[in-house]
From TrEMBL:
The keyword Manganese does not apply. This is DNA-3-methyladenine glycosylase 2 family protein. InterPro entries: Alkylbase_DNA_Glycosylase/TA, DNA_glycosylase. It comes from Streptomyces xanthii. GO terms for biological process: base-excision repair, AP site formation; DNA alkylation repair. One of its GO terms (molecular function) is alkylated DNA binding. The keyword DNA repair applies. Residues 1-29, 56-75 are annotated as: Disordered. GO terms for cellular component: cytoplasm; protein-DNA complex. Keywords: DNA damage, DNA repair.
Amino acid sequence: MAGRRYVPNPAPRQTRTTVRGGATHVPRPAHAPVASTAEARVYAPADPVHLGLTLGPLRRGPADPTFRTTPDGSVWRTSRTPEGPATLRVTQRADGTVEATAWGPGAQWFLDQLPSLLGASDDPSAFEPRHRLVAQTARRRQGLRLTRTGLVLESLIPSILEQKITTDEAYRAWRLLLHKYGDPAPGPAGGDLRMRVVPDPYTWTRIPSWEWHKAGVDNKRASTILRAAKVARRLEEAAHMDPPAARARLELVPGIGPWTSAETIQRTNGAPDEVTTGDLHLPGIVGHALAGDRDATDADMLDLLAPYEGQRHRAARLILLSGATPPRRQPKMRRVNIAEW
């Protein structure tokens, strides 16, 4: 065309990589929230479901980037599904039905898993209370169902972060790592709610050592997460195993013991009998509630829960929900933030 000169498009700008301490570090781009078409579904549970009680164990602290509750009663959650990142919003109607909306490449997968997420595979009728406190709590908390996410790594990594430290420190590390290395949540959750999707296994393995340190994560826990991320595909298979076999699969990874495997499988497999051992507080809480013994050990706790064989995790959940905790008589666990060293 006369009077106009053709100018070719410039070459795309390349991402700069830097080498620090012998390792190549690729800066993670700051993506905008992923826009996607919403998928919707209405689910009618066969039995009453309380969204907060059922989904609450998936929340890692009040500022968890993967979990939000909003004033309208909705629960928002993000996951990296086998089909890709997804955001789910669930709202309960007055008639007990649940309205679910999902965004992202994994939206359909998320909606297909909704019944399991809300405890459809859980059978609370198999539970028979043996103590008055437990029976009273079970009557008050009839909407409690044991969730089953079917996704291992997203529950395993925060459980590893919670090893041997205060929950506040673990929640802080989870929050910082997700905001820096997670992806923005698909749909509206990636905007005002600032929700994030848990990083993929490869990204976990590429986090530099100094970033773990800045998040307050010591080398032992960081190394355990790296080992788990490298065999993520094999660990994800545990979600489809019987709980004892699933725990055994997780515990093949050095650094993952009975406490971590139980905390994970409770969420991923909806396991009603996988009670947590090795916990700093749980034996004393169960001992105080059932026998007036605040100094109970793991062995004492298992003896007290023996009448609930097959449903020991549910019994422990109900005891925790009863509020029958012993009065504190010692200082809280000392907080040690290695990022300040």
